[in-house]
């Protein structure tokens, strides 16, 4: 009699406990939408997922392939509109403020205060993650776009020194070509063309000119001779690129540099992360330096996560991810894999390789040397960015289009998009 009674009593209790623990467990998950699908990006995302896992929260991956997040942003918007917003999303640049203004983002003020973010982050980063005094995003790493990678073995074999100015670049490129190596890697993917172009604009001008050029309301600057020179250099550099220029994923281009098929490559330092994941080490198999004319500048893109507010059902877990992602230990580990540098002023430079150290130290000099990447969403809104990139791509592909026509077209688009905004 006794055992069966206890069975009757215990069984429902056990079921209830089981049910509640299942429920609790079901809540311990975060849906994370991002565009990190290359090998190194995957590994870097896993570093964040592992940290979360140690707190018993599962990172449910919703990665959308496509360099620079072209596809991911489309998926994110459509998921949001159809009521299936992820808990966490990679969102970069001014979009953070726009989305916060719409009330879509969870405020992270408590996490920020408890972890001293206002003092820990670089001032530029601290400004970037706030809207109307509230913290609405967690920054994970700073990428440097104006990076020139070179193949050390080939440079050593040919006795070449990495170029510090464009005249040296031409000489090095010529020697590489004569030795049967493609001097400069390039893909014709529009965002990769734009990544090179914006670096050339900075090389021809300064962070303040760059900043104004890509901001609304300054369309006249598109006629500036510094833009003409950047466009002309973009076209002239084609003589050193593969012929034809294939539309290759950036990971594929990284493999070309690794194998020695190409000698140099201008790309954001996520390329360093990818080369490392292939087993190559900076300063051994490949070198990294600022693009000619940009040594004192930092053309940056900050990878950032936002937490979608929704019904606040995942708030505890979302706050945990924010706290972990910005913590010194996770910052050091994640950025080492990703190729970027910590967003923190207290980061340990002694743990960094030469490429990261130069990036972090340059960024640390402050806003006067910093230029926000247009292509990687830090400078303009999505509409203007896409319009500029489409025109640059046309100019790059069709040698018959004069620089002046591209300047005129972009200026007109910038004016039209700017006006539309002010009429709203
Ligand atoms: C950038 C992003 C980087 C890297 C790169 C290539 O926009 O900030 O984290 O993933 O695209 O996809």
UniProtKB/TrEMBL annotation:
<comment type="similarity">
    <text>Belongs to the bacterial solute-binding protein 1 family.</text>
</comment>
<comment type="function">
    <text>Part of a binding-protein-dependent transport system for a sugar.</text>
</comment>
<dbReference type="GO" id="GO:0042597">
    <property type="term" value="C:periplasmic space"/>
</dbReference>
<keyword id="KW-0813">Transport</keyword>
<protein>
    <recommendedName>
        <fullName>Probable sugar-binding periplasmic protein</fullName>
    </recommendedName>
</protein>
<dbReference type="InterPro" id="IPR006059">
    <property type="entry name" value="SBP"/>
</dbReference>
<keyword id="KW-0732">Signal</keyword>
<dbReference type="Pfam" id="PF01547">
    <property type="entry name" value="SBP_bac_1"/>
</dbReference>
<dbReference type="InterPro" id="IPR050490">
    <property type="entry name" value="Bact_solute-bd_prot1"/>
</dbReference>
<feature type="signal peptide">
    <location>
        <begin position="1"/>
        <end position="26"/>
    </location>
</feature>
């Amino acid at each position: 009699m006794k055992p069966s009674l206890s069975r009757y009593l215990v069984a429902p209790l056990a079921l209830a406990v089981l049910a509640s623990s299942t429920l609790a467990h079901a809540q311990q998950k975060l849906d994370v939408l991002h565009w990190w699908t290359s090998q190194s990006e995957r590994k870097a995302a896993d570093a964040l997922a592992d940290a979360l896992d140690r707190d018993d929260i599962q990172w449910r991956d919703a990665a959308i392939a496509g360099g620079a997040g072209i596809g991911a942003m489309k998926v994110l918007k459509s998921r949001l509109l159809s009521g299936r917003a992820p808990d966490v999303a990679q969102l970069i640049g001014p979009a953070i403020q726009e989305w916060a203004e719409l009330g879509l983002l969870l405020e992270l003020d408590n996490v920020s205060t408890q972890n001293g973010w206002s003092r820990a982050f670089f001032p530029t980063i601290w400004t970037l993650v706030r809207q109307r005094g509230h913290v609405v995003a967690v920054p994970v790493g700073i990428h440097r776009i104006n990076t020139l990678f070179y193949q050390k073995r080939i440079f050593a074999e040919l006795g070449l020194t990495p170029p510090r100015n464009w005249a040296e670049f031409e000489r090095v490129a010529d020697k590489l070509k004569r030795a049967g190596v493609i001097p400069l890697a390039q893909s014709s993917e529009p965002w990769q063309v734009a990544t090179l172009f914006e670096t050339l604009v900075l090389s021809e001008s300064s962070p303040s000119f760059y900043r104004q050029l890509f901001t609304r309301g300054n369309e006249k600057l598109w006629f500036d001779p510094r833009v003409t020179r950047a466009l002309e250099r973009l076209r002239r550099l084609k003589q050193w690129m593969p012929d034809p220029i294939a539309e290759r994923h950036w990971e594929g281009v990284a493999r070309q540099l690794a194998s020695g098929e190409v000698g140099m490559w201008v790309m954001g330092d996520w390329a360093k992360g990818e080369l490392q994941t292939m087993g190559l080490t900076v300063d051994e198999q490949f070198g990294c330096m600022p693009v000619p004319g940009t040594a004192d500048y930092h053309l940056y893109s900050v990878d950032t996560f936002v937490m979608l507010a929704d019904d606040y059902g995942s708030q505890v877990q979302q706050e945990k991810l924010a706290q972990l992602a910005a913590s010194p230990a996770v910052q050091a580990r994640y950025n080492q894999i990703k190729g970027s540098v910590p967003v923190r002023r207290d980061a340990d430079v002694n743990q960094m390789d030469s490429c990261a150290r130069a990036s972090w130290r340059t960024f640390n000099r402050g806003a006067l040397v910093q230029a926000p990447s247009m292509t990687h969403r830090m400078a303009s809104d999505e509409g203007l960015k896409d319009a500029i990139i489409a025109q640059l791509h046309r100019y790059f592909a069709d040698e018959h289009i004069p620089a002046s026509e591209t300047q005129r077209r972009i200026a007109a688009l910038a004016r039209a998009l700017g006006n539309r905004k002010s009429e709203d």
